[in-house]
Amino acid sequence: MEETICEAVSLELKKILKKGDLEGFKALVKSNNIKLDQRLFAKRKGDQWPLLNRVLDGDFSNRNFKGRFEIANYLIESGVDINDSAPYGCSPLCTVLNEHYYLRTSKAKYDVYLYTLVLALEMVRNEKVDVSKLTRASFGILDAAHQVVDIHDEKEQPELHKIASQIVKELVAKGTELE
């Protein structure tokens, strides 16, 4: 049975994750003896979030995105389950692709787009990633990756288009199919 982080510490962790404060995150984890595979407290068991999913979910402001990706990379390098699903069934890879797609409705800077794509590509290349997971809308990872390619014009954003296209190629090479 998965352990849950207590309510007070979960609230503090959520604030730190949103700010993208890696050192604050490490300090809070250490001082509270938190295991990185524990879930954040929620009143309903079905609403408990893994730390990796929570740091990748939600609006990325232009001021905190680098720190949030540092925390995500720290969690991945520390060996958390890269396939652990959020309450709605979305894996961390699904989450980062979905958040990237929704950036188009914000005033995100180029670097925010770049960081999300680079992280998604690193996750696709992770040997432990399960590319069969579905996204929020019950369509597959490859569908989500195609949406990301479609939002980056090859002429106007060649670097972003190239990385997004590479994600699709590597997903296909891993046997992922369109839903």
In short:
Helix content is 54%, strand content 0%.
Task: Note down, in words, how this protein is organized.
This protein has 179 residues and is mainly alpha-helical. The chain has one domain: Ankyrin repeat-containing domain (Serine Threonine Protein Phosphatase 5, Tetratricopeptide repeat). It has 8 helices and no strands. The chain has helices spanning 7-19, 22-31, 51-56, 65-77, 92-102, 110-125, 141-151, 158-173. The protein is globular and about 50 Å long.
Topology:
Elements: H1 7-19, H2 22-31, H3 51-56, H4 65-77, H5 92-102, H6 110-125, H7 141-151, H8 158-173
Helix pairs in contact: 1-2, 4-6, 5-6, 5-7, 6-8, 7-8
What are the defining features of this structure?
mainly alpha, Serine Threonine Protein Phosphatase 5, Tetratricopeptide repeat, globular
Q: Total helix count?
A: 8
Question: What portion of residues belong to β-strands?
Answer: under 5%
Number of domains: 1
CATH class: Mainly Alpha
Low-confidence stretches: none
Rg (C-alpha, Å): 16 Å
Query: What does the main sheet amount to?
Result: none
Corresponding CATH architecture: Alpha Horseshoe
Number of strands: 0
Ends: how far apart? 32 Å
**Fold-level CATH name:** Serine Threonine Protein Phosphatase 5, Tetratricopeptide repeat
Shape: globular
Secondary-structure element pattern, one letter each: HHHHHHHH
Question: Mean pLDDT, as a whole number?
Answer: 88
The percentage helix is: 40-55%
What's the CATH superfamily, by name? Ankyrin repeat-containing domain
